[in-house]
Amino acid sequence: MKNFSSKEIRFSGDSIKSCIGFIDLVDSTKNTITMDNLECIRKYYSKFINLTSEIIKNHNGKIIKNIGDCLLFYFPKTTTNNNDAFRQAIECGFSILDRRYNINQELSSQNLPLFNYRITMDYGVLDMDLVGDYSQIDLFGSTINLCSKINSSFLSTPNDIIIVDNLYRILKSFSNILGIYNFINIGEYKISEINRLPLYNIKRKPIFELEEKSQTNNKKSINNKQLDNFDNNLDKQKNKKEKIILIDDEEDILFTYKIFFENYDYDLTAFTDPNLALNYIRDLYNFDDLLIILDIRMKNLNGIQLHHQLKAIDPTIKIIFITALDIVDEFSTIVPEISKEYIMRKPVDKTILINTVKKLMK
C-alpha cells in the first residue's frame, strides 16, 4: 500500500455550496517595485494579509488560499439559506473597505503605498480536497475559477464590491437584505458567445451607511433591531413543492407532459420559448428541488445551448433531455457528463419519464 506524504492531496469527491470572495491588492507589484528594501515589502504584504484575514475571521469567514497579493475566502455558514450568514458575508467586504481610511493613514505615515482593493463575491458549488494529514480542506472548482477571472477583469472596479449573478439571486430572495443594500447592474461577463453572466455593484443604502460611520470598530456594522423590521421570506421558501420546468416549442407536447404529472404533487411551469424559460430560471434562487425537462431541437435556442447556459447559472441543475431524433449516442459524445438514461426519445413513455423524474428528485 502506498504511503502518502503530509504534502500530498487526496480528492475527497465531496462538494458544498457556499458564498466565496476574492480580494486583490490593486497595483501591488508596481507599488513594491518602488520600495527600497525587502523589509518594507514584507511589511506591506503582511499588513494586507493580517488585516483582511482578521476582518474575514470576525465575519465568520475562512481563508482558503493566499495567492500572491490575492486572498480567496469563503463563508461556511452560507451553506444553508441563512440570511444572517449572507449578510455577514457582504458586511465583511464593506468592513474591509471601511478600514481603508485608517489603514491608509498609517501606511502614509510609514511612507508605504496606499491600499486599494478589488473585491468580487459569488455563490456556487465548491469541490473539496483533503490536504496535509487529511485534516485540512482545500476548495476548488468552476465557481472559484470564474470568480477569480471576474475579479481580475476590467469590470471589477477598485474599492467596490462586485456581486456575480448567482449570489445576486440568493441575496434578492431575502427581503431584509433588499432593505439594506442597493444593487447596480454594471454589465455582463462574457463566458462564451452565447453565455454571459450579469454583474452587480452592491452599495449600502444611505441610512445604513450613516449608521455604520457612527459606530466604533467594536460594534456590529448593522443594527440588528432595524433589520428585524424587515420581513424574512425564508420560511415561506422552505415549504415549496419540488419544481419541474417543461420546455418545448410545441404546445401539444407540453400539454401531454402536464397530463403525465397531473396526479403528482409537483409545481409545474411550462414554456414554448426557451429564452423566456432561461430568464425565468435566472430569477430563481434555489435549485435543489428543481428539475428541467427540455427538448433538444428548438428554434432560437436549442437544447444543447440551453443546457450550457443553465449549467453556468448553477452546475447542479437537474436536466432531462427529450428528442425526436435518434441521436442518443451522438449527444452523449457532445455532452459526455449527461447519462444516457436522462436522454429520451419521443414519443416519451410516461412510466419511464415519471420513474426517471422520481429518481432525480430523491
Give an overview in words:
The protein is built from 15 helices and 13 strands. By secondary structure, the chain is an alpha/beta fold. It folds into two domains: about 10-235, Alpha-Beta Plaits, CATH 3.30.70; about 240-360, Response regulator (Rossmann fold, 3-Layer(aba) Sandwich). The strands form two sheets. Strands 1, 2, 3, 4, 5, 6, 7 and 8 form an eight-stranded mixed sheet that branches. A five-stranded parallel sheet has the order 10-9-11-12-13. A hairpin with a 4-residue loop joins β4 (about 115-130) and β5 (about 135-140). α2 packs antiparallel against α3 (about 85-100) and α12 (about 275-280) runs parallel beside α13. The longest helix has 21 residues, at about 40-60. About 30% of the residues are buried.
Which short descriptors sum up this protein?
2 domains; 27% strand; 5-stranded parallel β-sheet; Alpha-Beta Plaits; alpha/beta; 13 strands; 8-stranded mixed β-sheet; 15 helices; 362 residues
